[in-house]
């Protein structure tokens, strides 16, 4: 079974080919056009997807070394995401499946982030989670603890009530003038800083839910006060600020995840989404694995932020399950896992 995956939910145009669960290619074209606006501009994103989609698919097929006639089905991200961006991938999938007379498979973008853990690098790759496992999904738009029961059955047991972890990284980075998206920059600077230098407020919320808007505000007010007495406070303390901020975000994430794992008596724990690229969070997973005997699953960097390989692998499992969709399918901007 050979699946072509298409991802176009936000600002990355991506196509990937997966054969029997093994990755053959994963081409990602990121859109630099948004950097100067400090965030993704939906109208520009959909226009860039239109320009990129055909060359990206072409490259994915070429790198996989296959002809389009060898593809069994085309899987695409139906949502959640930006409607104009999703429309480009959905429309492309419709045209492609009609032309080749092959089925279409809709994929939930959030499920795809979780299922990225099942992508095999080669036929002998057996490093995959066993069910049930917990997945911490941390991205630009989501922060959730997901109980994964099967390839198709997932339950959100905790989630953010306001900002996502990625948003907390990005918004605080913006305040420090570190550009967009700031998450990777904070990660890099944090390596040179002292995480114990500053403390920021942590939320007190019942259950397994998260909140990051209070941290953002506390960070902002702290800087505002310090800048009054020293206009170069940020410049002088960038590394310590990043290290302390990153530590606070990671502590918040790991605290709830640990509680959920303990209560549900689950020792197999994965992390997914763009923020799972963060080196501090990866180290925290290693530490919890050593301390509590967790079996952990950390994705390859290429599968952390948006990519079509995760869409193709999701499509593969749906294909095996006979889950196809009709040609009248429309994308949806908002949808749960
Ligand atoms: P969603 O999947 O919820 O729709 P999205 O697709 O926009 O959101 P991703 O592409 O999965 O999100 O992740 C992007 C986020 O990951 C950004 O907020 C970015 O700052 C963050 N990020 C990427 N690398 C790092 C890193 N090394 N450290 C911290 N954050 C990071
Ligand atoms: Fe995403």
TrEMBL record:
Domain Gcp-like: 23-312
Cofactor(s) needed for function: Fe(2+)
Function, in words: Required for the formation of a threonylcarbamoyl group on adenosine at position 37 (t(6)A37) in tRNAs that read codons beginning with adenine. Is involved in the transfer of the threonylcarbamoyl moiety of threonylcarbamoyl-AMP (TC-AMP) to the N6 group of A37, together with TsaE and TsaB. TsaD likely plays a direct catalytic role in this reaction.
Species lineage: Bacteria, Pseudomonadati, Bacteroidota, Bacteroidia, Bacteroidales
Protein name per the record: tRNA N6-adenosine threonylcarbamoyltransferase
GO cellular component: cytoplasm
BP term (GO), one: tRNA threonylcarbamoyladenosine modification
Cytoplasm among keywords: yes
Enzyme Commission numbers on file: 2.3.1.234
Pfam families for this protein: TsaD
PANTHER family named among the record's database cross-references: TRNA N6-ADENOSINE THREONYLCARBAMOYLTRANSFERASE (PTHR11735), TRNA N6-ADENOSINE THREONYLCARBAMOYLTRANSFERASE, MITOCHONDRIAL (PTHR11735:SF6)
Cofactor binding, per record: Binds 1 Fe(2+) ion per subunit.
UniProt organism field: Petrimonas mucosa
Keywords: Acyltransferase, Cytoplasm, Iron, Metal-binding, Transferase, tRNA processing
Family: Belongs to the KAE1 / TsaD family.
The gene coding this protein: tsaD
Entry's localization field: Cytoplasm
Binding site for Fe cation: 109, 113, 306
Residue positions binding substrate: 137-141, 170, 183, 187, 278
NCBIfam families noted in UniProt: gcp_kae1, T6A_TsaD_YgjD
Reactions this protein catalyses: L-threonylcarbamoyladenylate + adenosine(37) in tRNA = N(6)-L-threonylcarbamoyladenosine(37) in tRNA + AMP + H(+)
GO molecular function, one term: tRNA N(6)-L-threonylcarbamoyladenine synthase activity
């Amino acid at each position: 079974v050979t699946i072509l995956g298409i991802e176009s939910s936000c600002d990355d145009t991506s196509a990937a080919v997966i054969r029997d669960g093994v990755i053959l290619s994963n081409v990602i074209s990121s859109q630099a056009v948004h950097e100067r606006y400090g965030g993704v501009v939906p109208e520009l994103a959909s226009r860039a997807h239109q320009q990129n989609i055909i060359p990206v698919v072409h490259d994915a097929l070429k790198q996989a070394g296959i002809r389009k006639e060898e593809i069994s089905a085309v899987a695409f991200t139906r949502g959640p995401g930006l409607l104009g961006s999703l429309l480009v991938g959905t429309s492309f999938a419709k045209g492609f499946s009609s032309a080749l007379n092959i089925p279409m498979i809709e994929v939930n973008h959030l499920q795809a982030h979780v299922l990225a853990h099942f992508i095999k690098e080669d036929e002998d790759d057996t490093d995959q989670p066993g069910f049930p496992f917990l997945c911490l999904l941390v991205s630009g738009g989501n922060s959730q603890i997901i109980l994964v029961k099967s390839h198709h059955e997932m339950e959100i047991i905790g989630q953010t009530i306001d900002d996502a972890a990625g948003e907390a990284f990005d918004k605080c980075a913006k305040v420090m003038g570190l550009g967009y998206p700031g998450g990777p920059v904070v990660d890099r600077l944090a390596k040179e800083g002292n995480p114990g230098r500053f403390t920021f407020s942590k939320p007190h919320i019942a259950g397994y839910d998260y909140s990051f808007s209070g941290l953002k505000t506390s960070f902002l007010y702290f800087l505002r006060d310090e800048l009054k007495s020293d206009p170069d406070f940020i410049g002088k303390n960038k590394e310590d600020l990043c290290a302390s901020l990153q530590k606070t975000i990671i502590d918040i994430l790991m605290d709830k995840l640990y509680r959920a794992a303990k209560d549900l008596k689950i020792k197999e724990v994965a992390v997914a989404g763009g923020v799972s690229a963060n080196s501090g969070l990866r180290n925290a997973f290693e530490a919890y694995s050593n301390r509590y005997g967790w079996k952990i699953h950390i994705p390859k960097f290429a599968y952390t932020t948006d990519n079509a390989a995760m869409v193709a692998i999701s499509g593969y499992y749906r294909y095996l399950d006979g889950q196809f969709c009709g040609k009248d399918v429309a994308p949806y901007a908002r949808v749960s896992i």
